[in-house]
Amino acid sequence: MDDYQSADQMQAMPKVFGNIEQPADAHIGKFVVFGAANAGKSTLVNRLTGENVSIVSPRPQTTRTRILAASTEGNKQMVFLDTPGVVSRQGLRRVERNVVTSPWLTLGEADLIIILLDAYKLTQKTEEVEKYIFRNLGHRTDVPAVLVINKIDLVEDHEVLAAKVAEYKKAYSNIVEGPIYISALGNVNVDELKVFLQSKVRPGNWEVPAGVSSDMSTLMRVEELIRAQWFARLTGYLPYVVRQKNVVWKYAEVPKRQEIPQDGSGHAVEPRAAEQNADGNIGMQQELYIEQQLIVPSEGVAKILLGTGGQNIKDIGRDARLGITKALGHPVRLHLQVTVEKDTTHRK
User: Fold this and answer.
1) Angle, to 10 degrees, between the axis of helix 128-140 and the axis of helix 158-171?
2) In the prediction, which pLDDT does 93 show?
3) Higher pLDDT, 134 or 102
4) Helix and strand totals (H; E) in the chain
5) Are 133 and 85 within 8 A, CB to CB?
6) Which residues of 21-49 are buried (b: 16+ CB within 10 A; e: fewer)?
């Protein structure tokens, strides 16, 4: 193995499972979670699967591509396709092309569409994207749908909400269930929705083994966990102009170290060497060394990402390392380097 190597094609590709062990009466349901940016799609997927598959941020367009998540109970497997937020015609110039097209293209994979609407936006009459969705949905697909209204805990005027929901329900003739009112963040009525979705599974082969929550590639999972950390710390447009490039991806056998997950402030801290056993050995374990460039378009953005004395990028790396270690199940060393490079792919 070379001293330095980037992640190979196997780490970059979605997982392929081959022959999946499953019961003779296996059932499956494929559900596309579809809606405007920041409607709570990723939060809902994480609730329904019980896993943090999709990163969650209060900022819109955190999900950049279609993500598969799965939940298997007994002989029933539910597969959820988390999509980027739908972008209206007015917003096309502000985002990448794949973010625009991915939600609509994913509809063709669904047995049932979960149309997720933000209850608060509906009552505030700021639903430009929702109007765009329902103007186009019937022309793009005829897949059955369930209408789900999220963030119900933020709404006070329920009469206005009910009237607006009734209006949207009439706009797509293939809505077969709903409205179901939920709070994905508050875990209100999510179980009711899950029971309904389980009733819609059909006989068919599973797509992932039982106990597996996603087909996401190892590299993509790592990059998502790193990206979640800078999204949590940067404001305005800044999180969206940072790009990632993997530079080093190297496994090595190293002496075991003892992970200490958090200090008194709730932050991750660096591991220390494990204590020797009775034979005087501390044993060996596999460790992954990752080096990534975080590419930004200007020196000004680089200074903000680095933070005073480099503290911001240190915090991002520290907390991302802890999340990656937990996700992969073995120790990780992570080095992040901020690089300034003009972004010629960003659409003006």
Assistant:
1) 30
2) 47
3) 134
4) 10, 12
5) no
6) ebeeebbbbbbbbbbbbbbbbbbbbbbbb
Q: Tokens 């992970």 correspond to what residue?
A: 259
Q: Which residues on adjacent β-strands are paired with residue 295?
A: 243, 339
Q: H or E segment at 258?
A: strand 257-258
3-class DSSP assignment, residue 244: strand
- Per-residue model confidence as pLDDT tens digits over 89-123: 554 444 444 444 567 888 888 999 999 999 999 99
What end-to-end distance do the CA atoms of the chain give, in Å? 42
DSSP-assigned beta bridge partners for residue 255: 284
- Report the distance separating Cα 47 and Cα 62, nearest Å: 17
Identify the H or E element spanning 253.
strand 243-255
Q: Is 91 helix (H, G, I), strand (E, B) or coil?
A: helix
Query: Do 9 and 219 contact (CB within 8 A), yes or no?
Result: no
Q: Strand 145-150 vs strand 175-181: parallel, antiparallel, or unpaired?
A: parallel
Determine the pLDDT at residue 92. 46
Residues 239-258 have pLDDT tens digits of 778 888 988 898 888 777 65
Retrieve residue 285's tokens. 């374990």
Q: Which amino acid type is present at position 295? A: I
317 closest CA partner among 297, 300, 338, 299? 338
